[in-house]
Amino acid sequence: MSETGSKDVDAYIAAAPKAAQPKLTQLRKIIRSAAPKAEERISYKMPYYDLNGRLVYFALHAKHVGVYALGQTAELAKGRLARYVSSKGTLQFPLDEPLPEAEITRLIKKRVAENESRAKARPSRTR
What we know:
Elements: H1 3-15, H2 21-34, E1 39-43, E2 46-50, E3 54-60, E4 64-69, E5 85-87, E6 90-94, H3 101-121
Antiparallel strand pairs: 1-2, 2-3, 3-4, 4-6, 5-6
Helix pairs in contact: 2-3
C-alpha cells in the first residue's frame, strides 16, 4: 500500500462532510479488505485502487457514494446490486442507507480476478 496514496485518501475522507465520513471510511475498509494488495491512489480527484491496473474508484456526491467498477463487472451488478446501477460500471449507494458489504466485497474480488487474469495473459516484457 502506497503511504502517499493512503495519506491522499485520508485527506479526501477528512475533507468530506462529517456526516459522510463514516460511509467513506466503511467503503474504504471494504475495498482494502477485499483487495489487500491494491495500492491506494488519487486520480480524477477520486480515490482509486490499483492492482495489475485500475481496480475501482469511489467518490462522494450530494446524496450518494459513487463506486466506479471498471471492467466486466456489469454482469455481477444484475443481481443484488441491480438497484444501485446508474450506468455501465457505475453504482450509486445512497448516503442514508447501509452499504451492501457482502455484494461490494464480491464485486471487488471479481475485479481483482479480472485484473489478475488480464495480467497473466499479457506477454512478458523480457529483453
